[in-house]
Amino acid sequence: MKKSIFVLTAIFTLLFANQANAQIERHQATFVYNFTRLVQWPNLHERPTFVIGILGRNAALLNELNANAADRNVGSRNIEVKEFASIEELEYCHILFVSNSRLRDLPRANEKLANMPVLVVTENQGRHPAGSIINLSIENERLGLRLDEELAEQRKLVISRQLANFSR
């Protein structure tokens, strides 16, 4: 009996954790799509598609972004979502999402994308990682963001006042 209760408790805990994670990825995808409206890229017209990149494996976020990509566009450009398994695979993208598990690769990713207008988005609780333009974090049970306007300017990205005001 005790063993059955333990197993059921473990299963419910895993289910709720998976639901909570799926909810986070859904909100992260919403934020990323909102960034496409609130940021201006200097070379948007030079590329046939608008590319959102994810560094590392993040199946839940990839699925959320792909689920909405067909219904959206950026400046009349279709959206393509790419997953980069390693820094070596990394290529130009308009937005690069770096999850918490891949923050150690952020300095190398920034080196590879240096002087390119790439909006680097991270998810890190607490501090804003160096090299990240927007960091998503959960505070007081709400997903929010912090913005490094100086780095965005260095990358030649124009951030809307609306996004800057939303930043904490």
Quickly list its features.
single chain, 168 residues, alpha/beta, two-stranded antiparallel ribbon, 5 helices
Task: Tell me briefly what this model is.
This protein is an alpha/beta fold. It has helices at about 1-40, 60-70, 105-110, 150-155, 160-165; strands spanning about 40, 50-55, 75, 75-85, 95-100, 120-125, 135-140, 140-145, 160. Mean pLDDT is about 85; it is low at about 1-20.
Main sheet specs: 7 strands, mixed
The low-confidence parts are 1-21
Strand order of the largest sheet: 3-4-2-5-6-7-8
Overall 3D form: globular
Could you characterize the architecture of this molecule?
This protein has 168 residues and is α/β, with parallel strands linked by helices. The chain is built from five helices and nine strands. It has helices at 2-38, 59-69, 106-112, 149-154, 161-166, and strands spanning 39-40, 49-55, 73-74, 77-84, 95-98, 119-123, 134-139, 142-147, 158-159. The chain has a seven-stranded mixed beta sheet. It has a two-stranded antiparallel ribbon with strand order 1-9. A hairpin with a 2-residue loop joins strand 3 (73-74) and strand 4 (77-84). Helix 1 (2-38) packs across helix 2 (59-69). The radius of gyration is 17 Å and the shape is globular. The termini are far apart. The model is unreliable at 1-21 (pLDDT under 50).
What's the topology here?
Layout: H1 2-38, E1 39-40, E2 49-55, H2 59-69, E3 73-74, E4 77-84, E5 95-98, H3 106-112, E6 119-123, E7 134-139, E8 142-147, H4 149-154, E9 158-159, H5 161-166
Parallel strand pairs: 2-4, 2-5, 5-6, 6-7
Antiparallel strand pairs: 1-9, 3-4, 7-8
